[in-house]
């Protein structure tokens, strides 16, 4: 009889212990579920807010780009790049180059022969590049022009004043810039240039001129003009 009583007490203790552990486990699971529920409903609005902000910023950037560059993202909507070409080689630049040579728009991937230039013999300070801004876009920021070889300058034909600009300058209005080659420098850099862009294999790329449109310190549009040379005859191509 005594053994039966002991057995029933032990069984009761086991049941109580089992029920207690089950209750603890259930409470822990409820806490985890509540935590996950709170985390889910806290993170969801935050994610939605971040997404909305990203979309607004993206749309604002597109709006600025379209306003300045145009819907077709064409460089001609911002400015036109003109050079002075020659019909045949060894047609040298003179101070009346704008009358004696043909002014042409430099189109993308269209090679043009420029009037010849010799730094020791020419009456002009360099090869002229005319950048005409499209005023219809009311461009408020600058166009940056940078060359990795040679130098850039401006020239006042009436006074004869030449202003050196070094390797980089910026403009906010229509302007004619002059580029002067540096043969020693371009020879050292020739290994890094793309040489397979010219119709003739003996034309050697000697410089890369980068033209970029900037607004709020951000580059919105960028083009590269490669300069090629063969026996003091110069070529230009836009990429």
Question: How would you sum up this structure, described in words?
Answer:
Helices cover 33% and strands 32% of the residues. With 239 residues, it is of the alpha+beta class. It folds into two domains: 1-69; 75-238, no CATH class. The strands form two sheets. A six-stranded antiparallel beta sheet has the order 2-1-4-9-6-7. A six-stranded antiparallel beta sheet has the order 3-12-11-10-5-8. A hairpin with a 6-residue loop joins β6 (151-155) and β7 (162-166). The model is unreliable at 2-11 and 60-73 (pLDDT under 50).
> Uncertain runs with pLDDT below 50, 5 residues or more?
2-11, 60-73
- Sheet/helix structural class: alpha+beta
Overall geometry comes to globular
Fraction of residues in helices?
Answer: 25-40%
Supply the number of structural domains.
Answer: 2
* Spatial strand sequence of the major β-sheet: 2-1-4-9-6-7
Overall mean pLDDT: 75
N-to-C SSE string, H for helix and E for strand: HEHEEEEEEEEHEEE
Q: Please, how many helices?
A: 3
Number of strands: 12
Q: Note the main sheet.
A: 6 strands, antiparallel
Approximately how much beta-strand content do the residues carry? 25-35%
How large is the radius of gyration?
A: 36 Å
Q: How far is the first residue's CA from the last residue's CA? A: 105 Å
């Amino acid at each position: 009889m005594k053994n039966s009583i002991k057995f029933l007490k032990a069984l009761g203790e086991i049941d109580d212990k089992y029920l207690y552990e089950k209750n603890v486990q259930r409470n822990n699971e409820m806490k985890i579920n509540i935590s996950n529920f709170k985390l889910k409903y806290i993170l969801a609005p935050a994610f939605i807010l971040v997404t909305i902000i990203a979309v607004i910023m993206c749309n604002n950037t597109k709006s600025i780009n379209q306003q300045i560059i145009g819907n077709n993202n064409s460089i001609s909507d911002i400015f036109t790049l003109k050079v002075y070409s020659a019909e045949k080689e060894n047609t040298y630049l003179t101070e009346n180059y704008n009358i004696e040579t043909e002014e042409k728009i430099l189109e993308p991937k269209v090679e043009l022969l420029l009037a010849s230039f010799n730094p020791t013999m020419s009456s002009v300070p360099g090869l002229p590049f005319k950048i005409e801004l499209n005023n219809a876009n009311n461009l408020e920021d600058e166009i940056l022009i940078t060359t990795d070889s040679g130098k850039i300058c401006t020239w006042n034909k009436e006074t004869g004043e030449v202003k050196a600009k070094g390797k980089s300058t910026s403009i906010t209005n229509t302007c004619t810039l002059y580029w002067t080659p540096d043969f020693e420098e371009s020879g050292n850099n020739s290994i890094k240039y793309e040489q397979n862009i010219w119709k003739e294999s003996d034309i050697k790329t000697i410089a890369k001129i980068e033209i970029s449109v900037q607004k709020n310190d951000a580059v919105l549009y960028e083009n590269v003009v490669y300069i090629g040379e063969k026996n003091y005859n110069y070529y230009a191509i836009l990429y």
